[in-house]
Design brief:
Aldehyde Dehydrogenase, Chain A, domain 1; Aldehyde Dehydrogenase, Chain A, domain 2; 2 domains; seven-stranded mixed β-sheet; six-stranded mixed β-sheet; 20 strands; about 40% helix; about 20% strand; globular; Ald_DH_CS_CYS
Length: about 475
């Protein structure tokens, strides 16, 4: 997902006096200014986490799970307040914000159950010896989380890190800092002092945190920021987990219902105003159904624009970036059959937009747009569409709509992404985890495998001493 952009006031005498000013994305009015952590605050938070690490690591896993359940109950009780903050800072509707918080509660509860049964392996060796592995916490984890689904995503990383015995310093996105602070205030009392802390700030604070004495850096955000954090981890030795940007393709085969396919495309491209890591970012449709598909997709976008269900983008900077991709496509010959213009009025609204006549040379097809834009390129065959879907530097996810089992199997085997979705743009079983590829990240995100990411393995071999030594010990 794209980098964060907010108004930051920098103090000349002390970075501790800097602040982040947040505007309401619906009205443009200033909501509040939240303090930005300086070097001393960052260093103190990491030191406190380090001091608390040993005791928390030695706490029984069942007790850590119980603490996580307490945190989940507290989060559920504060859902309405947090949803209001989410709506105010990011523009996400309250009902969608509540759904994200409910997902966060479920995630904490899931890790509360999974953590205590997270175990090592029995290794096959000599019958007269024992060989096994032990999973241990890595230590101090820095978690840098995004604004587009701020509670659900944060709870995944927080839950997995804490239940495996790590201490956490959480830096929420600077686009929703008050929400991040409030989330910390809700969750922290469930844990011993120093085990879970929250600091606020922008990219500079994230860089300070990444350069600190850490054992884990976990990041969900832009590919550019993720690359910086990967370099910081390579220098410090910290384990880095990244889920970063995507440019997810949707491949529409000739044998599917074009109206249904357009509904799937609209859901993937326009939900949360396109501000979803695995949103549909580029569409390849077979020429045999392209006309019907594009007409139905245009109708889907027009319906959303007409009934006012498209929420604003998170801020004006994001809207400018989205519109720059659209303007580049139009300048290169694409057509905006719906949307594609900057609306009048306050806030950072952008219409649901359908672009036809797109080509692989356009920025909207090559880069992550992160807005309610559905760019369509017509292809002459499934193989041609699959070739284009496999192109690019990202590797987060991809969706294929097809009734042809051979094409489906070919796509699953070929697409260079962490997640392949067949005939459904969103969905999947709970507990699923994937490994992003390319500049989309590295390491498992979510699911039981995330517990492994926050753990390190010790191999143990136990053999009996020689018989003579045993005899000497006898009375």
């Amino acid at each position: 997902m794209p980098t964060t952009a907010v108004e930051t006031t920098t103090g000349t005498e002390s970075a501790e006096r800097a602040g982040i000013t947040i505007r309401n994305p619906r009205t443009g009015d200033i909501l509040w200014t939240v303090p930005e952590a300086g070097p001393e605050t960052v260093a103190r938070a990491v030191d406190v986490a380090r001091s608390a690490a040993s005791d928390w690591a030695s706490t029984a896993p069942s007790e850590r799970g119980a603490a996580l359940r307490t945190a989940a109950r507290a989060l559920d009780a504060a859902a309405r307040e947090l949803a209001g903050l989410n709506a105010s800072e990011t523009g996400r509707p309250v009902d969608e914000s509540l759904a994200g918080i409910a997902a966060g509660v479920s995630t904490l509860e899931q890790y509360a159950e999974l953590g205590p049964v997270h175990r090592g392996l029995s290794l096959r060796g000599s019958q007269l010896a024992s060989d096994y592995t032990v999973a241990e916490p890595r230590g101090v984890a820095a978690l840098l989380t995004p604004w587009n689904d701020p509670v659900a995503v944060a709870c995944g990383l927080i839950g997995a890190a804490l239940v495996t015995g790590n201490t956490v310093v959480h830096k929420p996105s600077e686009r929703c800092p008050r929400l991040g602070e409030a989330l910390g205030e809700v969750l922290a009392p469930a844990f011993p002092p120093g085990v879970f802390q929250t600091i606020t700030g922008g990219a500079g604070v994230g860089a300070l945190l990444a350069q600190s004495d850490l054992d884990v850096i976990a990041h969900v955000g832009s590919s550019a920021a993720g690359a910086h954090l990967a370099r910081a981890g390579a220098q410090s030795g910290a384990h880095v987990i990244r889920e970063n940007g995507g440019n997810d393709p949707l491949l529409v085969d000739r044998d599917v219902d074009p109206v249904w396919a357009a509904e799937q495309a609209a859901m993937g491209a326009f939900s949360n105003s396109g501000q979803i890591c695995v949103a549909v970012e580029r569409i390849y449709v077979h020429e045999a159904i392209a006309a019907e598909f594009c007409a139905a997709l245009e109708a889907e976008a027009a319906l959303r624009n007409g009934n006012g269900t498209v929420a604003p983008l998170v801020d004006g900077r994001m809207r400018d970036a989205v519109h720059a991709h659209v303007a580049d496509a139009l300048q290169q010959g694409a057509h905006a059959v719906e949307g594609g213009t900057l609306p009048d009025g306050p806030g950072s609204f952008y219409p649901a937009t359908v672009l036809t006549g797109c080509t692989e040379r356009m920025e909207v097809m090559m880069e992550e747009t992160f807005g309610p834009v559905a760019p369509v390129q017509v292809v002459t065959s499934f193989d041609d569409g699959l070739r284009l879907a496999c192109s690019g530097k990202y590797g987060l996810a991809a969706t294929v709509l097809s009734a042809n089992i051979a094409h489906i199997q070919q796509a699953v085997a070929t697409l260079p992404v962490g997640t392949v979705k067949i005939n459904e743009v969103f969905g999947g079983a709970p507990g699923g985890a994937a490994q992003p590829r390319g500049i989309s990240g590295a390491g498992f995100g979510y699911g039981p495998e995330l517990l492994d990411e926050f753990s390190r393995v010790k191999v143990v071999h136990i053999a009996a001493p020689p018989a003579a030594a045993l005899a000497r010990d006898q009375p």
